[in-house]
Design goal:
Layout lengths: L2 H31 L17 H8 L5 E7 L6 H19 L4 E6 L5 H9 L5 E7 L2 E7 L1 E7 L2 E5 L8 H13 L3 E6 L12 H6 L3 E6 L12 E5 L7 H12 L3 E5 L3 E4 L6 E4 L5 H4 L4 E3 L3 E3 L3 E6 L2 E12 L2 H4 L9 E3 L6 E3 L7 E8 L5 E3 L4 E2 L18 E8 L20 E6 L3 H4 L8 H13 L3 H7 L12 H16 L2 H56 L1
Parallel strand pairs: 1-2, 7-8, 7-9, 9-10, 10-23
Antiparallel strand pairs: 1-5, 3-4, 5-6, 11-12, 12-21, 13-18, 14-20, 15-16, 16-17, 19-22, 22-23
Helix pairs in contact: 1-14, 11-12, 13-14
Length: about 550
């Protein structure tokens, strides 16, 4: 090869290399200033819409609008929240194929925009700011409204991006009318929808909860799942047969409590076993709901005489890896089961039936099955372990082609379910469904997940348990420490300490912002420059090698 040809080839290689580097640089810059074409490489696709959310948007029949109200002068920690909300809403918009339009509004000092936000149901929230070494309060907006076909749903205040996809998808489902009906079995002293289960119904906005009676056959085409919560009286066999027929025809059944009657209103609080007849169904399907209360030294604390003491009737179950594989408990670490009976798994489960204990006590648990069980908190030394000590199941999932519990009963019920059906048996009653109302605890998540699993809405569970916390991008410890120091100094009214803490916080915040900017630009420019440098080095090495060969 002649010298001119070698120079031409080297020049062409360098040109192509620089073009490639330029393309990479352009793509990185595009990704820096826009969010289109994002690639989610996280193991659980934390930053991508769940399939159910995508399908929901793909099936929109009419145009939908989302208006997000975010004030520009919010505290720094909400700046990342706004970016995450923007990214999430863009995912929804892209999945909608043009049906969803998204608009961000900063009300600022515009009274008309503030009034519009309030008309849309967005609440002005008081925020604390630390500026120029001084603390101040300011009202601001961070909420959104969804409008569709003349109706609307609102998230008044966005606390953060955790759980936001679930909240959005639930409200969109509600708007478009995509609701499954869950029947709440009435009668026999069971918890009522209007009173005992009202908080739960507020959480399950994606379902239509409707009271039903087992005194007549339950419509499988209309009712996706039936919940029986804390019955305290015997259920007639004719109604049990109707429940059996419903399950044999493909219906899902959730039994929550039903073997212990609680008396918490009149002192002293007590509980008594009750035989509701449910085991006529359950024993045929491989489990038994026991008439007892599980007591566990691994438990929650309750106040007594000005101090907190362990309360064994509130077992705190720790879930293992095998249990967490089930959709109803996926991603949950601990679940509290207040006043729970044990659920025994029988050794002779029918063929084609899968029984999986979901929630179990510790190995130090025991059961109390007295005719009258005293429930008041007491000194830990006064608790007496009785009978066998060991693990007790408190929630069990049953799935498969269940056999009929009444194979010889008239009425034409199938002898066996034609398809896989789902039954959930939970030893705790209505109090379990109310645990953690107002905040998403693992216990409340399990309650909601159980309904989703019964209604075959497994995708919703995946949305609820997703976390948007990205490793390595959390608020630095120095910033958190400075904020805590400022809070403590403010409460102690120590002005000097407070001023020093504010300066420390400002310095930590500035350093954090600089590190973010450096990281951002390093990722944007670093890869193309490294690639170009590598190409130049390789080119120089090739030239040197050829010169050596020529010599």
């Amino acid at each position: 090869m002649t010298t001119n040809k070698r120079k031409r080839a080297a020049s062409e290689s360098l040109v192509f290399l620089l073009i490639g580097a330029g393309i990479l640089l352009a793509l990185n810059l595009l990704g820096l200033f826009t969010s289109y074409g994002r690639f989610d490489a996280t193991r659980n696709r934390l930053f991508s819409l769940a399939p159910s959310s995508e399908r929901l948007m793909e099936d929109l029949d009419e145009d939908m609008q989302i208006t997000a109200y975010f004030s520009s002068d919010l505290p720094p920690q909400f700046a990342s929240t706004e970016r995450e909300v923007r990214d999430l809403l863009e995912e929804y918009a892209q999945a909608s194929d043009g049906r969803l339009s998204v608009r961000f509004v900063d009300p600022g000092d515009d009274e008309e925009l503030k009034s519009q936000a309030e008309e849309d149901g967005i609440e002005a929230v008081q925020h604390q700011l630390i500026e120029a070494g001084a603390r101040s309060t300011r009202m601001g907006f961070r909420g959104l409204v969804i409008k569709y076909m003349g109706d609307s749903r609102t998230i008044p205040v966005i606390a953060g991006s955790d759980g936001l996809e679930y909240e959005l998808t639930m409200r969109i489902k509600d708007l478009v009318g995509e609701k499954r009906v869950v029947g709440i079995l009435a009668g026999h002293g069971a918890a009522t929808l209007a009173e005992d289960l009202a908080p739960l119904s507020q959480m399950l906005t994606n379902y239509e909860l409707r009271e039903v009676s087992a005194a007549q056959p339950i419509d499988n085409d209309e009712i996706s799942a039936v919940l029986l919560v804390s019955p305290s009286e015997a259920i007639p066999e004719a109604e049990l047969q109707n429940l059996n027929t419903y399950v044999m025809n493909g219906g899902a059944l959730g039994i929550i409590g039903g073997s212990i009657n609680l008396n918490l209103e009149q002192p002293p609080p007590s509980a008594a076993p009750v035989d509701t007849g449910l085991n006529a169904l359950l024993e045929r399907w491989g489990v038994r709901l026991e008439q007892n209360l599980v007591a566990d030294p691994q438990c929650e604390m309750l106040p007594m005489g000005g101090m907190a003491v362990p309360y064994p009737f509130f077992p705190r179950a720790v879930l293992d890896a095998e249990q967490q594989e089930h959709p109803a408990v996926f991603g949950l670490a601990t679940v509290t089961m207040p006043f729970s009976a044990s659920v025994s798994v029988l050794e002779d489960a029918p063929a084609g039936v899968r029984v999986l204990p979901l929630i179990s006590s510790s190995e130090g648990a025991w059961v109390v099955n007295d005719a009258s069980i005293m429930l008041q908190p007491r000194d830990p030394t006064e608790w007496q372990r009785t009978g066998r000590v060991g693990t007790r199941a408190m929630a069990v999932a049953i799935e498969g082609t269940l056999p009929s519990a009444f194979p010889d009963a008239p009425g034409g019920a199938p002898a066996q379910a034609a398809t896989d059906v789902r039954v959930m048996v939970i030893g705790a009653g209505s109090l379990f469904l109310q645990a953690g109302q107002g905040q998403m605890t693992d216990t409340l998540a399990f309650a909601l997940n159980s309904v989703d699993w019964l209604a075959a809405e497994d995708d919703l569970i995946a949305i609820r348990t997703k976390s948007v916390a990205e490793p390595g991008l959390d608020q630095p410890a120095a910033l958190r420490d400075a904020e805590q120091r400022a809070e403590a100094a403010s409460e102690a009214r120590d002005r000097d300490e407070f001023a020093e803490a504010l300066e420390e916080r400002q310095a930590a915040e500035d350093a954090y912002k600089r590190s973010q900017q450096i990281t951002q630009w390093a990722l944007t420019l670093g890869l193309p420059l490294l690639l170009a440098l590598f190409g130049v080095i390789r080119w120089r090495q090739r030239i040197a090698k050829k010169n050596n060969i020529k010599l």
